[in-house]
Amino acid sequence: MIPNTTLPNNIEMPLIGLGTTHSGGYYHDAVLHAINKCGYRLIDTAKRYGVEKQLGIAVNDCTVPRENLFLCTKLWPVDCGDGVVNAFQTSCDKLQTDYLDMYMIHMPQLPEWVQDQKEMKEKTWRQMELLYENEHVRSIGVSNYSINDLEELSEFASILPHANQIEFHPWFHQSDLKNYCDEMGILTMGYCPLAKGKYLEDEQLCRIAQKYRKSPAQICLRWSIQQNVPTVPKSTDSQRLKENTDVFDFELSEEDMNILSSFSSQNRKIVDLSNICQKMSLPDGYKLNGRVFGVPEDTEKQKSCSKCARDNNVQLSVCI
Length: 320
Known about the structure:
Site (Lowers pKa of active site Tyr): 74
Keywords: Oxidoreductase
InterPro entries: AKR, Aldo/ket_reductase_CS, NAD(P)_OxRdtase_dom_sf, NADP_OxRdtase_dom
Radius of gyration: 19 Å
CATH topology: TIM Barrel
CATH class: Alpha Beta
Active site: 49
Number of helices: 11
Domain NADP-dependent oxidoreductase: 16-262
Distance between the termini: 36 Å
CATH architecture: Alpha-Beta Barrel
Strand order of the largest sheet: 3-5-6-7-8-9-10
Order of helices and strands: EEEEHEHEHEHEHEHEHHHHEH
Structural class: alpha/beta
Helix content: 25-40%
Strand content: 5-15%
């Protein structure tokens, strides 16, 4: 069983989750295997990945009750401001759920057509706060936020983010940002915990892995969770899905933790967001390239927010 950590609002969240980024395609059987056989309960996705609908079918078909899952998805910047509510409802419909365990702003950048960026950020965060205050989501967060971004948000936020999801692995981790989040009571979450496999043959890493009789990937995951950083590796291989959860029966020494942390440099950052504004208008899931496998014929029963019964023509915006 995968242990939990606790968010600042006392909501429990698993330390290891299933990443569903659009890179590498979507394999329905792998998702079901992860949930049903490997104990994954945290499912991390985003509108941008283009797989919310497929995940909704998996959530509906799996053997685990919805209340035992922790579903996290993200708001894409083009849905800022007045678009937040509709984007949230659309994600819920696709995921076949009437609430989210966490809803995140995917990144601080906004489309270039937004003239007053700070005003729009404030409006967007207020909509996120309303979703939380009205119990449509159990927690709210941000992703890819820097210290400067968080400081700006704190100027107008009534509720600080419960989490900040950032790239976090031994070869790139922002200790100053994590320390700032710790001081502010914001939980740091990590993505790309294995650096997309780019450095798993590192000699020092392999030596540490041999010492603990674990794989290099398991050492990287342990390094994250030992810092109380929940992380969401992605895999479509059944053996690796299980291996990624087998990291709670050992503990890295302080010396080995320091060796792993010493790998970090800006040059080893994996995800490049420098030109993201030029890609905001691309279709969601564009990186999938049609690589969606094993999804059964769509027999989903759409669910709307329980507080906003669509059968009675009540709009979500009215409720909040």
